[in-house]
Structure formats: C-alpha cells, structure tokens
Amino acid sequence: MQRSRKDQTSFGAFNGSYNFGDQGGPTGANPLDTGYGFANALLGVYQSFNQAQHHINGLYRYWNIEEYVQDTWKVTPRLTLDYGLRTAWYQPQYDAGLQASTFELSQYNPAQAPRLYVPAVNPANNTRSAYDPVAKTYLPVNYIGLMIPGSGNTADGICQAGTCVNKYLTQDRGLQWGPRFGIAWDITGKQDLVLRTGGGIYYDRIQGNRTFDTVTNPPEAYSVTQQYGYAQQLNPATAVLSPPTAVEVDPTGKIPTTYSYQFSLQKRLPMNMILDVAYVGSMSRHQQDNRNLNWSAFGTTFTAAATDPTAGTGCTGCSPALGTGRPLGSNALPQNFMSRIYGYSNINLYESAATANYNALQVQLQRRAAKGLFLGVAYTWSKAMATALSGGTNDNSFVRPDQYNRLANYSPASFDRRQVLAINYVYTVPVPESFGNKFTKLITNGWQLSGVTIAQTGPVFNPSVSVQNSSNPIVTGSYTEGWRPAIVPGCNPYTGSGNWTSYLNPACFVPAQVGSIGLESGINYLHGPGGLNFDMALQKEFAVIKDGKVHFQFRADAFNVFNHTIFTGVNSGLAYTAFPANSSGVITGPPAGYTATALAVNNPAQGCSGLSCTQIGGFGSLNQSGPGAFGYSRILQLMVRVTF
C-alpha cells in the first residue's frame, strides 16, 4: 500500500513571461515584428506576454493498493512452472481542494463564447485598430484578437471537480489484473540445455505533472496573455484577456499498460561458459500523449474567410496587398478568429492513446567466476517503435489531431539503438608459483586487468528545414500544424566522405511545397555515427603486514583509453532563403538557395569553399560528446587505497 499526499503550487508564470521571438518579420502575424528576436527584445516588441492571475496551491492525493499471489510447480524433474497474479488499484490522483477542472466539449455552448476585437480601419485617423462591432468602439491595434470584456463566458465548457464531473475528472478504472507466467524446461535432463519462456502484464500510473496542470484551467487560475505589443505599454489596470488555453483530462482514465514476453535457450559450453540466446519483446498501450482539440485545419489560412479585411487597404499599420514577398496565407487573421472552439486558444487533451513496441534478439556469453578469466559478452539487435514522439520521448508530445497520426508519427523511438555489443572482463595475470623470491612476488603477483568495451550503432534523429520569413500559415495553411522536410527520391542522405564537417548531404533535403499536409517525411529516420569505446583498469592488491590485516590496492583507470573520437550528434538544421512569389502572392517555386550560415566549411557535397560557407558547425557537421558522456576524450585516474 502506498499513500501520496503532495501540496504543490501551480506552474503559472506569476512573474510574467515574454516571447520576443521572430514570427516572420513585418509580413508575419505581428505587425510590430522587426524580423529579428534580439531586436524585438531591445525594442520591447513581444509576440506574447503571459502572467498568471492567481497563486494556487493544489492538494494532490492518491492511494496505490496492490496485492499478488504466486506459486512454483515442479511438474517433473525437468519441467518447472512459475505463475502468479498481481492486482492493483491506482486511485486517480486528484486535488482534495477541488480546485482542478477539465474542459468538456459537451458542456461548451458556442452562443456563450466571448466576442473578440476584430481588425478594422479607424476612419478617424486611417489606422489599423481593434474594433468592437457591437459597441462600435476602436482600441489600439494590439487589442486585436483579445476578448471583449463582459461579452461572454470566459470559462465556457469548463467542468470543475465535483460538479459536472467527479473529483477525479476521469474514470476510476478499478482493479487492474496482471497475470504472469514462466516455464523452464531442462531439455536433455543434464542441465546443459534449458528452454525458458514467459510473459506478463504490467501497469503503472501516469506521472503527476499531468494532474498538476488541471488547476491551471480558467477561471480558477486564469493566465492573462497579451499578444503583439510593446512591453512598456503593459498595464495591469487595463489588461484585456486573450482566449485562454485549457486542459482536458482523458475521460476514459485508461491505465498505461505493458505486455512483456520472452523466449530463450541456454546452453552450457566448454571452459565454464554459458550461451544464452533470447527473443525479448514488449508492447505498450494506453501511454500518454497530447492532442490539440482546437487545431487548425490544413489550408485554413488560404481561404477567403481567413483573410484579414484590413490587408491591402493602404491604411497606417495595415499589411500591403499580396505580392512579391507576401505569399498567400501571410495576410490571414490571427488564429483565435478561426478556432474550431471559439473563445479558446489551444485545448490540450491529455490522452491515453499512444502505443510503443520493442523487439530484440539478445545473445549473451558468460564465463562465470573461474581461475584466470571472468568474461561477459552481450549483443543486442533490436528495434523500438512508438507513435508519440514529436522529436522526443516525453509523455506530453503532441500528436496529429487528424486520421494521419500513425502514418506521420509511428517511428523509431528516440532511444532506439539497432545494434549494441558490450564486453566486460576481469583477467588475473598468471605468475608461476616458482617464479622469484618474496620481494619479486610482491611486485609481480596479484595484478588484474579489467575493462568494458562497448560498440554501438548511432542514435536516430530527424533533420529540420526552415525557410526565411516563412511560417505554417504560408506553407500548410494551418496555424497549428507544420510541415516536414521533403526527401529527394533516390538521394543518399549520407555523404560517406569520412569528413566530420559533412556527414549529411544537404542536397537530399528540400522544403515542402505549399499546400503540404505534413507527410513529407517521418520521425527519426536517419542514424548518427556509431561509436567504439574502451574503458580499462589495471590494479594490484597486496598485503604488506605478515598477518594480512593491512592491504594496499593500487589502481589505474582509463576511460576511452585509446582516445577514439566518438561523435554523438549531428547538426541537422538546414536553413533556406525565402520562397519566391509572383505579383499575385502565389509562391512560384522552392527557395533559391541556402542562407549564408547554413552549411559547414568546405562542404564537399555542395562544392563550398572560401567565404561561400564558413560555419564550422553548419548543417551535416558532427558534434562530440561532453565531459562524462560516452566516448569523451581520454580520462586517466590513479588511486591508492589502504584497508585495515
């Protein structure tokens, strides 16, 4: 039994949080954007400013109650069965103060959604302004997209714990049943060839951060977000709220589940060695991911309904008409006007829908404690796949909200290593008993050489391609859904040159075409360079006192003893110049080339030399590991230890 009681404040930005990042320059959504993040910060031009209104202290509680039974049945002298059953109740973690809440679409009423200030031209000064069409009043331009005070319910669709939903905000799944079994069969009856197999079902609760976020929903912990303004003009007394983000807890309450199984053969070999060959597999279900319920459909910003009515009107502060440098989608209204669930920004469903699997061939050779040499060799050939990656391994990764999630995101997991060979050994240097006298034996006897050698293939990764002054609304026509780099058919992404500055061929990766739906490439479809590392130690232990109660040990350790260069990462971000567009705002083709800082120095894949590409860390160049990491530069240490 486990009882958890945790009091924790919400993660709100009580001191305020600025985003000064570039969002496409003056042609992007923010008319004040300079096109350079550092310049925005110096001028105080923010894309968004967020500050939480309240300091909430959540009172989080849960119980874990588990019980199990197990038994071993020796059916025959050569056949043994192990079987058992574990049951568990994972009480959903909840806030005892009932401050938590969840968004519930069935409780949302579009008629109660707040109205937003729309963009319009103020006839008094011919300036782009925020306009309330009901009160017929004009406000400064940075109010565009904010909620008009008193115009609706700012918590429309929010269910407070204990009201239209239970205190858990989700279903209590009750007892989880986890059967396990194992079989061991001595095939020959001589204990020199043994078959083993088994499997089981395992459960766990989701991490607490998913529950802690439920106190950040409006109206309990409203976070004020201002968009597109100057920091010096922020005033708490006149702050107007933007459509809030919200969290929805998966109402099904499904428990993360893993099905694990294995099949192996063990064979006793000469010289006290044992060979173990095994298939090991697992399947994970009901893992956590994030799904944005208020996503923006592909092509939305290309429609007439999404067009900013002030664009091209010639007023002060209005964006110019479409033309060269202003492609279709760049004059769209802010995202809040085109939301599926009006009056909200993103609504994140904390979903129990991600899956993963692992399949491996595992071979081990062991020479157990024996005179002279202890040896262990392990080789793994495996593949780990998952659906909720988005470039990482966290359970808060966003998945696609449409029917193409598995097609786009079912990919090698970020920790996938296809092949790993590990060798460990301890070798006692033999010295004949008749060799030398007491003094020489003190020097020559008792030496041991030990070490660990690891050879492995490289980690998986995926490249990224960016385009200057571009954004999702221009390429995919969506505010929330992005595109991926397209892979040139038949092009080998690896140069094979052996040059650390040009591991990848940039000619194989190009930007997506306009109208993309983000299916140009997958995730983690490339492999970085592998590594071979030797860690070794030489030690000697001896007693200098006749009764043997005082021992000295001398030890010399060497990590990466041969000082192999092992690269652990690849610079995989490729930057292109802007899309060309005709006088009608239609993009006419791919960008003309790379930016000045895109490629590594003298990249042979592009014939770069001199000043044409001078970045040491440009696209395709390799990164070495840092101190303490696998394969870092040789480290030596000496140690003398006295025990008495």
Query: For the CA atoms, what is the radius of gyration?
Result: 32 Å
Number of E-state strands: 33
Shape call = globular
Instruction: Assess the beta-strand content as a share of residues.
Output: 35-45%
Q: Quote the distance from N terminus to C terminus.
A: 44 Å
Largest sheet: 17 strands, mixed
Structural class: mainly beta
| Overall residue-averaged pLDDT value | 88
Key terms:
globular, 17-stranded mixed β-sheet, mainly beta, 644 residues, single chain, three-stranded antiparallel β-sheet
Give a nutshell description of this structure.
The protein has 644 residues and is mainly β. It is built from 5 helices and 33 strands.
Structural features, described:
There is one protein chain. The protein has a 17-stranded mixed sheet that branches. A three-stranded antiparallel sheet has the order 2-3-14. It has a three-stranded antiparallel sheet with strand order 8-9-10, with no helix packed on it. With 644 residues, the chain is mainly β. A hairpin with a 6-residue loop joins strand 12 (175-186) and strand 13. It is 4% helix and 39% strand. It has helices at 37-43, 208-212, 405-409, 438-444, 472-475, and strands at residues 2-9, 17-19, 45-52, 57-76, 79-90, 94-95, 101-103, 118-122, 127-132, 137-139, 158-160, 175-186, 193-203, 223-230, 246-249, 257-269, 273-292, 347-367, 373-386, 411-412, 419-428, 447-456, 460-461, 464-467, 486-487, 509-510, 526-527, 531-543, 551-559, 567-570, 573-576, 622-624, 635-643. The longest helix has 7 residues, at 37-43. The chain is built from five helices and 33 strands.
